[in-house]
Amino acid sequence: MNEDVAGNYLFAVTPTQEDTARALVVKHHEALLKRKAQPGAAKQRVYADLTHERSLIERGSRLVAGMDEVGRGALAGPVVVGVCVVGADTIDPPIGLTDSKEISPDMRDAYVPLIQGWSTDYAVGSASPQEIDAHGIIGALRLAGQRAIASVESRLGPIDTVLLDGSHDWLTEPENDLFSLLEETPDVAVEGYTQPRVVTRVKADLACAAVSGASVIAKVARDRLMSELDTSFPQYGWVTNKGYGSSGHAQALRDIGTTIHHRLSWHLPGAGETAGDGE
Q1: Beta bridge partners of 83
Q2: Residue 225 pLDDT greater than 80, yes or no
Q3: Contacts of 196 (CB under 8 A, 6+ apart)
Q4: pTM greater than 0.70 (yes/no)
């Protein structure tokens, strides 16, 4: 699985398709607001804006890249990192944009062309199950994130600041120490990547539009990829579980064994057997 695999699942769209997606998103958002206004309705959902990104730009950042990951806890498939870049001239985000987990699958698909048209640039990067086994999940996340950043930097030049969801900076290379020097599988150098300043923010995927956009494009790209892999390995149910540890997925691992798309270092059921490579 090559480093560009996830990016192959974000499709170029025409202006007509973007207009259609925008109309669908607006209609859905208006219906949601109407339901929320009814007596006894649940608390209003939080939508993302550019308040934090604009604050970073006002303090000297030329380009701010929101970044989010998907697939960290899956049993199969790559880990995918999305990047959504904004600048001083970026307008307000598409209406209703928020964390991908708060958006239904069909609406996530609708948001993708809007995010593509709204952002200064965007990209996804991935790290394969073999790279996860070799470098660990944090090392693989770093590799996928660096690939995504290198992709946008090839078009825009250096990214000043990356805004990460959460409180842990998994993108920045750790300082060398005795243990890292003894590792048999050092991190892979990504051509074209320059280390940006990293800012973390808890719940940035909900409140910061660049991170929300990154979460949506990463989720859509990985879901499309896993649905395609399901055509070769339908026994595992990847079209529905997307490689995560559902009961059906676990049972298939016990009954059939693993594939080249599984993370073998994770002590999976059936890890001693292989179901083939599907090629």
Answers
A1: 67, 123
A2: yes
A3: 65, 149, 158, 159, 160, 161, 162
A4: yes
